[in-house]
Design a protein that fits this description.
38% helix, 10 strands, 3-stranded antiparallel sheet, 212 residues, 5-stranded mixed sheet, alpha+beta, Arc Repressor Mutant, subunit A, Nonspecific Lipid-transfer Protein, Chain A
């Protein structure tokens, strides 16, 4: 790990997280929490196996990542963010917002896309407008993987992999359009025109919006 050698907080932060792939590893661990090495490799298309191992070792030395042995029958090593690593969430959210206008359609750009990546922007950018109301669940399918979005009672939402029991509504379609719908950037009619399928009470959507 190379250092800028500068007595500056930004330089010191970049010493720890500025190397190629480091923040994308953080992204994967924010989405999956405890993660196997193979899960990380699959979620980081293009990374070499030896480079992933090197980055994980550096992140562990920097106090960003910890590893633990999973209990049987899994019996493998799991990686997860430390409390220090989780403090990067606001920076990840800000960088995601800044980078959103730079994105193109992966079908035309040829860029890689993994279905589970949509879970992080859903958690970071979708807000519950009526947190005092009864909690609701949404079943989301943005590709091959199913997700459950649930209100957390404090204005935030939780996003977990897997199907939901008795969801208030279900949404299926392109991930970026689903995110735009749930943050209030497009109407349901516009989302449907772009390939979103929505089932359930439409008033459920009034519950959600983007950050203030």
């Amino acid at each position: 790990m190379r250092s800028y050698g500068q007595c500056c907080a930004l330089a010191k932060a970049l010493d720890a997280i500025g190397d190629r792939w480091t923040l994308l590893i953080v992204r994967e661990l924010m989405i999956r929490e405890a993660c196997r090495y193979t899960d990380l490799k699959n979620g980081l298309p293009g990374i070499a196996t030896n480079l992933l191992a090197e980055r994980l070792n550096e992140m562990e030395q920097s106090g960003l990542v910890t590893r633990e042995a999973a209990p049987p029958p899994v019996a493998t090593t799991l990686f997860r963010l430390t409390a220090r690593g989780r403090e990067l969430e606001p920076a990840i959210a800000a960088l995601g917002r800044w980078g959103a206008p730079l994105m193109g359609n992966p079908q035309t750009t040829g860029d890689e896309f993994r279905d589970h990546w949509v879970a992080l922007p859903l958690r970071l950018y979708v807000r519950d407008r009526r947190p005092k109301d009864a909690p609701v669940r949404l079943a989301i399918r943005a590709g091959e993987e199913s997700l459950t979005l649930e209100t957390a009672g404090d204005g935030s939402v939780r996003v977990q992999p897997g199907t939901s029991e008795r969801p208030a509504a279900s949404i299926q379609g392109p991930p970026h359009t689903i995110l735009a719908l749930l943050t209030g950037k497009v109407s349901l009619a516009s989302a449907r025109a772009k390939g979103v399928r929505f089932e359930g009470e439409t008033k459920t959507l009034e519950r959600f919006g983007g950050p203030e």
